## 1
Amino acid sequence: MSRKKIIAGNWKMNMTLSEAVKLVEELKPLVATEDVDVVFCVPAIDIIPVVEAVKGSNIAVGAENMYFEEKGAYTGEISPAMLTDSGVKYVIIGHSERREYFAETDETVNKKVLKAFEHKITPIICCGESLTQREQGITIDWIRQQIKIAFLQVSAEQAKTAVIAYEPIWAIGTGKVATTEQAQEVCKAIRDCIAELYDEATAETIRIQYGGSVSADSAPELFAQPDIDGGLVGGASLKPDFGKIVNYNK
Ligand code: PGA
């Protein structure tokens, strides 16, 4: 079965409103293709102008985070309905920076994943090991644990539509991209884990990205791997390079 690749930019805490609109205008022609799904995950305050700026293009807009409650006394948080009402289609959940700096856990990740599905927002569910864990040889066990908890109570029908981003923490923002063998090995292990939790059909349908210092140079080989269905791109998504990454096979 052939899965459509999905290439998402993660802007992180970059781009003021005016910078955001300028960047979208610059990137729009560079990422114009129907061959892959293109997503810009942007800071909350940039969502509305970016949704406006991508109108009529192939670009979908995602958020970088979301809270797991419907509404109420949660100062500073953003609800799923606020996102869908603004035109958001995707949400990054459980990025390692959120886990590290904002105390997110596998349990809150699971709550957010369930809430995203409830609101028909596609979650981009992040997992990844630290350098110590890799050196200890516990990468696969760790990732399997993260995936199993993230997907608790998620139905097979929902899981089929999910996106998983495998991002080794030691490769994020470091310029130290995982080797294609390392990336493929873990993405395959994630797919096997989904097959165990659900079935082969779900495992064959779910899309698994690699993230961590993806560049125009590394993208073609990474995305050619059988279990890598695209990328979650940080630094390079803020540059014209993102156009090259999206067009990795041309
Ligand atoms: P990077 O970030 O491409 O800058 O390493 C990836 C990510 O954190 O999603």
Note: Residues 177 and 213 are 5 Å apart (CA to CA).
## 2
Amino acid sequence: MEDCIFCKIIKKEISSDIVFEDNNLIAFRDINPQTEQHILIVPKKHIANVTDLGSDDTLNKIYNATKQIAKEQGFLDSGYRVVVNYGRHACQTVFHVHFHLMGGEQMSGRMG
Ligand code: 5GP
Ligand code: ZN
């Protein structure tokens, strides 16, 4: 996808603060962090929405990366939140599926 911002980050055409990368996934710090630690975990394959995931083991890989990154970044024990925005009501803005990994501070109990 030529005009996808996350594809450009994956191809290193746009710089980002990468915290994890393997053959399938990349994770980098959100440019507009909502919490002390705010990392986006992104499959390298261009998949627009979380609703298009499922038939392969990408979700499992993301799950494992989530724990690994939280451990490496020092917030596994204090806890974290994983958020996926899909569609209009959730205010999705980038249409290349990504998981927000948020932590490093006390968050509100309210999520809506
Ligand atoms: P969404 O609203 O689609 O769930 O989240 C998109 C996220 O991508 C936002 O939190 C936004 O700050 C982040 N973002 C958008 N463009 C860039 C960028 O060029 N670099 C980085 N690191 N994050 C971005
Ligand atoms: Zn893309």
Note: DSSP finds two helices and five strands in the chain.
